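Quick illustration, no need to memorize.
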Amino acid sequence: MADVTGWEFVALLVVGLVVLGPDRLPQYAAKLGRLVRQARATVEGLSAQVREEMGPDFEEIEWRRYDPRQYDPRRIVREALAEPSEVSRPTNDQLPGTG
């Protein structure tokens, strides 16, 4: 989920207070709370449905392999450049008209 520190939460609260005003802020905070609870329930329901449809194979999948945060473009390029290329240059005796 979103990592909000204490100071960020206070800043958001102050901005909300200025933009919405002290009269409407509690109403919108309650609406936001309901929206978050509804979104969590929906995600949990979808997750359960996916687990049910995939069956026992779902538990065997290594989900950490597919985590996009593990991909570092610099590392990928570095590894690709470090690998020997599969296409090798022909030597003089392999060139047509020589040898």
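The chain has a mean pLDDT of 80.
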